[in-house]
Amino acid sequence: MRKDICIVFILSLAILTTTATAAPKEASGTVIGVDCGDVFDVLMIEEDPRTGSGVVTVKLADVILSEIESAEGEGAKEFAEAHLMNRTVWLDIDDLSVAGRDPLGRLLCVVYLEEPDGRINLTHPFNRLLVDAGHAEAHDFQEDEFDPAEWWPAWVVINEVEANPEGSDAGNEWVELYNDGRDDADVSNWTLTTAGGSVVLLEAGTIVPAGGFFVVTAGGYWLQNSDELVILRDERGVEVDRTPALDDQDDDLNSWSRYPDGGDEWIRIEASPGLPVPPIELSMGTISDLAKESDNWLIWSDGPPPSGLWDVSDFLKS
Questions:
Q1: Rounded to whole angstroms, what are the CA distances from 215 to 147, 160, 219?
Q2: Which of 14, 21, 97, 138 is most buried, judging by how many CB atoms fall within 10 Å of its CB?
Q3: How far is C-alpha 130 from the chain's CA centre?
Q4: Segment 265-295, tens digit of pLDDT
Q5: Structural domains in the chain?
């Protein structure tokens, strides 16, 4: 989605204004078997009085799947096996059901994946992943405590950075934002801070639509071609997202972009302001590749934000 205001001001922001409101640390375990897309067996690690020890059967809350005998049902099972088998998961157990279980005695849960570094992925519970992948439909069953709408918060991140466009850089550098949520995100008075000390203020009334992009540009030179790090902060100054340190020495049509849109990996690929990132097969390289070559590639800064703000509207031409 685009918003034309002379200088390219294309919709592309992604913010994490909130994570799922659930508390997933009630219990955890390792998935040892998958019955179908929404039912699987978990060997308990961190126990809850409702789980007991040993193996418990988990049923995903608030999703509807096709019968396992159907092609769609088999696809959902294969998806669950690929994403869950031998993975550590954290369970948010339904507090409204008797002993947290459905009528068939299965533990009714919203399930969160533990990442390899030990973090819990709070923004994308597996219930949501099934829906996003087209293997299930979300449905708000009133008998349980959960609200599937909370799985798609307004989630805005820095999605793409073009610090060295083809031709003149002045006035042509841009940062794309992306909203991965189902609700529009109000980013009034948010800021983008660069490694060189530039601070761009998003004007009041700036909205990033659900699933949409927002490209921010400014006059002059505001993005460095080497060791550039961009930080997104909300109107209170709280950090929402930051990029790794990015090098862009080539005066070409390629940029650094998240893959997939809103994802964790950064790839060097053909620039796509306001549009989905191209297929990863077309990428020139990834941050992960470069990190293997240089332990110092990723540079993170915890220093205070620089003083002084640039209002984006100051750079817009009528």
A1: 32, 9, 14
A2: 14
A3: 16
A4: 999 999 999 999 999 888 888 876 655 444 4
A5: 4-18+154-315 (2.60.40.1260), 27-151 (2.40.50.90)
Give the integer Cα–Cα distance in Å for 265 and 171. Answer: 27
Distance CA 167, CA 23 (A): 50
> CB-based burial of residue 67 (10 Å sphere; 0-12 exposed, 13-18 middle, 19+ buried)?
exposed
**How many Cβ atoms sit within 10 Å of the Cβ of residue 199?**
18
Q: In whole angstroms, give the CA distance from residue 51 to residue 100.
A: 9
Contact predicate 121/74, CB 8 Å: no
Residue with tokens 């750079």: 315
Mean pLDDT value across residues 125-140: 95
Buried b vs exposed e over 69-100: b needs ≥16 C-beta within 10 Å? Answer: eeebbebbbebbeebbeebbbbbbbbeebeeb
pLDDT band at 236 (very low <50, low <70, confident <90, very high): very high
Across the chain, how many H-helices and E-strands are there? 3, 23
Q: Which of 305, 297, 189, 316 is nearest to 247 (CA)?
A: 297
Tell how far CA 7 is from the center of its chain.
27
Residue 188 has which token pair?
A: 């009034």
